[in-house]
Design goal:
It contains nine helices and two strands, in the order αββαααααααα. With about 300 residues, the chain is an all-alpha fold. It is globular, with a radius of gyration of 21 Å.
């Protein structure tokens, strides 16, 4: 099974390109490796590399991939540092775009044009990184920078022209969802199993297809398309989008946990940061869109 996050869909952190704990069949010369209560059993003696995707990479460290304490393996501090760096870059460029690209009547067309261009570049960079086998820090930070410009202008438009304070509300909402999912995941209230992954993948695919169809109708037919992004339907789909973002976060946490448990190399922390950033941007945009719809319908 693979994560719905495009960063992890090409190369996940868990063994067998799936989630740890699902394949409990004993391997030749080894024992089953599973998970109970969120705790990961480490590969046993006899065949320590049977189910670890990083086994060949870990051979250079001269020891089986037990706890990621050996130099060169990903740690939680690495993930936090890289995620903070990536999000920090995005926030700084968003703030600069907000300050330097005004959205008054005289400048909104130019500012919005720059934002759309930056958003397209950011999307291309995200796709390039998503299909690369290894993380490229410069590419990830460049994505964050261009995405920040896009978010800064869009947030300024919504905050100044539709709903005052919308940007801060969206930030607080995103932080609340992140904290809630993290607490629920660590407490075991959210269990990322095959059924959960299948449901999230199906729901995400359906959601994206509907949004794409709605966009096509809006572009060629004018108006709000099929109405999935306005009125009561827009509110419903905004809530669904936020819930999907929360599910993506749970998948991201699971992938990071697998990477830590099975000794992923340190550079994988950049992929974790990239994936978490993509998910947080998704949630923020859904909050911003939902706030816009709620205020437009007042």
């Amino acid at each position: 099974m693979r994560s719905s996050n495009p960063v992890f869909s090409r190369r996940g952190f868990s063994r067998d390109n799936g989630y740890a704990g699902f394949n409990t069949a004993p391997q030749a010369g080894g024992t089953a490796v599973g998970t109970q209560g969120g705790q990961y059993a480490q590969p046993q003696a006899g065949n320590p590399y049977a189910q670890n995707p990083y086994a060949q990479q870990d051979l250079q460290y001269g020891a089986p991939p037990q706890a990621p304490a050996t130099t060169g393996r990903m740690t939680l501090d690495d993930v936090i540092l890289r995620t903070g760096t990536t999000l920090g870059t995005l926030i700084v460029t968003a703030a600069l775009a907000w300050a330097l690209l005004p959205v008054d009547d005289a400048n909104i067309s130019r500012s919005y044009g720059i934002a759309i261009g930056a958003g397209l570049i950011g999307m291309v960079l995200a796709l390039v990184q998503s299909f690369k086998r290894k993380a490229t820090p410069a590419l990830i930070l460049a994505y964050a920078a261009f995405e920040g410009v896009f978010l800064g202008v869009v947030s300024s438009v919504v905050d100044n022209r539709i709903a005052s304070g919308a940007a801060m509300q969206a930030v607080l909402g995103t932080m609340a969802v992140f904290a809630a999912v993290l607490v629920a995941y660590k407490a075991g209230w959210i269990r990322v199993n095959r059924r959960f992954v299948g449901f999230v993948m199906a729901a995400a695919l359906g959601f994206i297809m509907l949004m794409a169809i709605n966009l096509l109708f809006a572009v060629f037919g004018g108006g709000d398309g099929l109405g999935f992004r306005s009125g009561p339907m827009g509110i419903l789909f905004g809530v669904i989008g936020i819930l999907l973002g929360a599910c993506f976060l749970a998948l991201d946490f699971k992938q990071v946990e697998d990477g830590l448990a099975y000794g992923a190399p340190r550079e994988e922390a950049w992929l974790a940061a990239f994936g978490l950033t993509l998910t947080l941007v998704w949630i923020y945009m859904e909050f911003l869109r939902l706030i816009s719809i709620l205020n437009s319908s007042d």
